[in-house]
């Protein structure tokens, strides 16, 4: 059943003991830079795309995004050499232009969970080197780097359930006691397939309906609303 952003009474049957966060667009306000670097790279390599469509691909492996664009345009598979070259170009652009800032409200939310004894992990489609360097630089006091699942740890990326299943496995957790906080359609779909409870946060331009259509249980506008949702459903009971 689809809820609305104003309906904060929907919650898992059990209080979650584990929260798994996506990274870009959930921990860090980096998606505009990803969209810009993807769009610039696509144009440089003759791949037709709009800037905003890269928000739809967020969370999946970058190599899968390139393969999708190439096959859509040319009707055949891209070579591994081409995929590698394009991805390296995009990664270089992203690192050159990105100013790292945290999503507003994410630090107090993580600390609130930790103060309640909730376990914290991260599941991202980014590379291990990128994810660990960024989390280590900005959230080292809040997130254990051993509890981060990246694209390098998975055979299949989002929207497959594998990344979130691996995240749960780090903690020997079960889906019924796992909460996922996502912002992108593929990430929401992956989390939903893993059978975790999924809260989607509208930190980008993705419409609420798309997030619900991809499997979100609750859609909220920002991290302050996620905090309010948690406090209302658990701390005030």
TrEMBL record:
MF terms (GO), sorted A to Z: sugar-phosphatase activity
The organism's place on the tree of life at top rank: Bacteria
Coiled coil: none
SUPFAM superfamilies for the chain: HAD-like
InterPro entries in the cross-refs: HAD-like_sf, HAD-like_SPP, HAD_2, HAD_sf, PGP-like_dom2
Name listed for the protein in its UniProt record: Haloacid dehalogenase superfamily, subfamily IA, variant 3 with third motif having DD or ED
Naturally occurring in which organism (per UniProt): Porphyromonas cangingivalis
């Amino acid at each position: 059943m689809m809820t609305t952003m104003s309906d904060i009474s929907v919650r898992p049957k059990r209080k979650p003991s584990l929260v798994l966060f996506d990274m870009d667009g959930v921990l860090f306000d980096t998606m505009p830079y990803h969209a810009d670097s993807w769009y610039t790279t696509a144009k440089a390599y003759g791949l037709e795309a709009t800037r905003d469509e890269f928000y739809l691909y967020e969370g999946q492996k970058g190599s899968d995004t390139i393969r999708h664009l190439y096959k859509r345009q040319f009707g055949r598979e891209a070579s591994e050499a081409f995929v590698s070259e394009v991805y390296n170009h995009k990664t270089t652009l992203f690192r050159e232009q990105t100013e790292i800032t945290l999503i507003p409200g994410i630090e107090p939310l993580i600390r609130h969970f930790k103060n309640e004894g909730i376990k914290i992990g991260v599941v991202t489609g980014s590379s291990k080197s990128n994810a660990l360097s960024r989390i280590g630089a900005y959230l080292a006091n809040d997130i254990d780097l051993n509890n981060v699942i990246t694209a390098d740890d998975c055979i299949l990326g989002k929207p497959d359930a594998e990344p979130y299943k691996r995240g749960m496995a780090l903690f020997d957790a079960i889906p019924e006691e796992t909460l996922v906080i996502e912002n992108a359609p593929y990430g929401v779909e992956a989390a939903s397939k893993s059978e975790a409870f999924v809260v989607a946060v509208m930190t980008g331009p993705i419409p609420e309906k798309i997030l619900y259509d991809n499997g979100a249980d609750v859609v909220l506008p920002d991290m302050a609303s996620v905090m309010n949702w948690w406090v209302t459903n658990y701390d005030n009971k």
